[in-house]
Amino acid sequence: MTARTQIVERQNQQGGQQGGQQGGQQQGGQQQGGQQQGGQSSAAGSSVSASPSQGSSAGSQAPSASGSGSGSGSQLNIPQTAPVGALSITQPVQTTIAFFKLAQSQPITFAWTFTDVLSTPASLTVSAVCENGVTYPVGPTDGVIPGTATSVVWDPYAFQQANPNSPLAQATYTLNIFDERGPGAARAPGLLQANSALRFALYTPQPYTPIASGWQCSGCNVNGMISQYTAHPAFISIFATILVMFLSGIAVIRNGLH
């Protein structure tokens, strides 16, 4: 074998080795590319699988938004031109001052009606203000009743028995009714205006005393009444005037006869 032939064979061997290495590298690159494609596919699959959960979360958020919208829509809008709400007492009748007996089993019923009240009060406070300035709660619930109530029953005798340190005086009272805003709340369209129009009186009946036990009628003593009238200066003046007129009349008649 010549030297030239040996050189050619060596070149062929080196070329084959280089070709094999390049082929192996190409195959490895193809394998890496396949792995990358597989990773991208799995990532895409995970993103796709995540999208339904986002849709479900979006779907779950939608009802809450609609619920808040319905809540805001339930607010009451009162026009500024609406009249002020009023309360009118229907029991007892307000033509005169009503008198109530402060005795056992003698409850008092107060009743009323609403007019132009567009916003129902949360609560009503009912109280009786005595002419001496003392205020008493009216009703079995310490004076506070539901805003939709149209009457209240008060037992003043039971209240006095339960509160001996706050006795009810025999006097005239004013019934106050107002909502949760208080008695001095400003007038507002559609809202209840405080009412203090009703006046009533409480009295305590005197125990029965037989005549045989010494009962006397202070207004039935005729002798006492006469003594009072005779001692009064006006009675003396009237009596003197009548006497003068009588005597003058007699004198005129006597002169006419002559």
UniProtKB/TrEMBL annotation:
Annotated membrane-spanning segments are 234-253
UniProt keyword annotations, A-Z: Membrane, Transmembrane, Transmembrane helix
Task: Give the matching InterPro entries.
Answer: DUF7137
Q: Which residue numbers delimit the DUF7137 domain?
A: 81-218
According to the UniProt entry, which residue ranges have a biased composition of type Low complexity?
A: 38-67
The record ties this protein, via Pfam families, to:
DUF7137 (PF23585)
Specify where the region named Disordered lies, as residue ranges: 1-77
Give start-end positions of Gly residues composition bias. Answer: 16-37
Statement: the UniProt record of this protein carries the keyword Ribosomal protein: no
Instruction: List all Polar residues biased stretches.
Output: 1-12
Q: What is this protein called?
A: DUF7137 domain-containing protein
- Write the lineage as a comma-separated list: Eukaryota, Fungi, Dikarya, Basidiomycota, Agaricomycotina
